[in-house]
Design brief:
With 539 residues, the protein is an alpha/beta fold. The strands form 7 sheets. Strands 1, 2, 11, 12, 13, 14 and 24 form a 7-stranded mixed sheet that branches. The protein has a 6-stranded antiparallel sheet with strand order 7-18-19-20-17-23. Helix 1 runs parallel beside helix 13, helix 5 crosses helix 13 and helix 11 packs across helix 12. The longest helix is centred in the last third of the chain and has 25 residues. Its cofactor is FAD. Keywords: FAD, Flavoprotein. This is Glucose-methanol-choline oxidoreductase.
Length: 539
Amino acid sequence: MQNFDYIIAGAGSAGCVLASRLSQDPNVRVCLLEAGGNDKSPFIQVPTGVIAIMPTKLHNWAFDTTAQKGLNGRLGYQPRGKALGGSSSINAMMYARGHKSDYDHWQSLGNEGWSYKDCLPYFKKSENHEFINDEYHGQGGPLNVAKLIEPSNLVDCFIAGCESIGVPHNPDINGAEQFGVMQTHVTQKNGERCSAAKAYLTPHLSRSNLSVITGATSSKVLLKGKKAVGMEYIHKGETKQLFANLEVILSAGAFGSPQLLQLSGIGNSDALSDHGIACQHELPGVGENLQDHIDLVSSYRCDSKLDAFGFTPRGIARITKALPQWFLKRRGKLTSNFAEGIAFVKSDVDMAVPDLEFVFVVGIVDDHARHLHLSHGYSNHVTLLRPKSRGSVKLASADPFAAMSIDPNFFDSEEDMELMIKAWKLQHKMLNSEAFEGIRGQQLYPVDPNDERAIIEDIRNRADTQYHPVGTCKMGPSSDPMAVVDNELCVHGLQGLRVVDASIMPSLVGGNTNAPTIMIAEKIAALIIKQRKALKRVS
């Protein structure tokens, strides 16, 4: 029987932070379980490797959603990281925190201590910003934030195009004001991906009090009455158990954490009984409240002589030339994250807070890069930042290796479609501005901008996730019947069990979710350490 003080299920963005911070005390024993493998692959460490991971099952769970009525019955696609670092090991490395009001909204829902003022110190604690040193940014933290080493000059066209529709140039969308357009800041260090694993975990793998087990599928939280006492997991075909002296922490993400709770008999009793699982603790909100950023991409072909990626003889020659630049000096085009431009946009000029995000990609993106084109080009994502639609994540089977039934319920809200139509038109206006004259080639899926029915059909035929599922273990007070955890991320009604990852977000932030997830874990790690020290003093 193996005992640890803390057992953490999931080595994604949150799990890596927790394992690192909690194991700083050499007297505390921490075990981190990860179903995927290590993060040593060059496809993870080389920034452009994302193009090989995103459309495949390489370090990627590559989940499908249920058939989406709002997407004309299509299955949505949900890439999730399958390695140390979780999705921070396969994402586009964009550093964007969301808007201040998002966190103030969390607090207004009854989550004391989660206002922007409360969260900002933990964003700063996590961060080492290479070139901005002010009240909004940190230096000396594990997560390195940098400028792109060799950005495409096409990003200048994107910035000019956004300015033409009233979006100002803003050198720091994570600072005093979010509204605006800029070249993307990336979680990279010296031309390599700086995932949560690279930042927090792998530098400390030699700690004698930190055990990291990869290829370990967590299958059940072990309960003794209403207290979590350990974790069951499957490793190399063998079922094993670990026991926790202090806490079990679920950090398996918006899909994995509700799955683990449900496999453990924690959730909606009727849904659990459908899979022959006895209910140990009734919590109807487990797996509910799924929110995700719905997104639509518009792509254009362009001349191969322009500074864009492409699957052509010229493009292959460029990549071949770039290989030694990266492997010898960590420089050149392989340092690109592809998503080199970012803008936070208002669908109406009178809005106080941006409700749309543009992401400019220096290559053609079609169906998550699963549909390749033998040409050079560029693309632009437009994303609804705070969709009204809500979905769910439910067990499809009692088998811990089975994928969940993921239903984002895209466009269930008519308001989401109304806003996406406005977003479509804004994106079209930006991409057809004078800024792109002379480089604009053929559009991949042209639609008459005056034909609203055709626009709606285009949205339903091609829209999908921007890879930010959250909310399935909602944080909220006990008076909220759908809340799963309290403001300290302890599971309501149980002892010794927390959920710490993006699943606890009661509502989506208006931005990318990696940096906020790291912030959440930093905040709770500090709380756990404080509570442990207080307990030690009492004892």
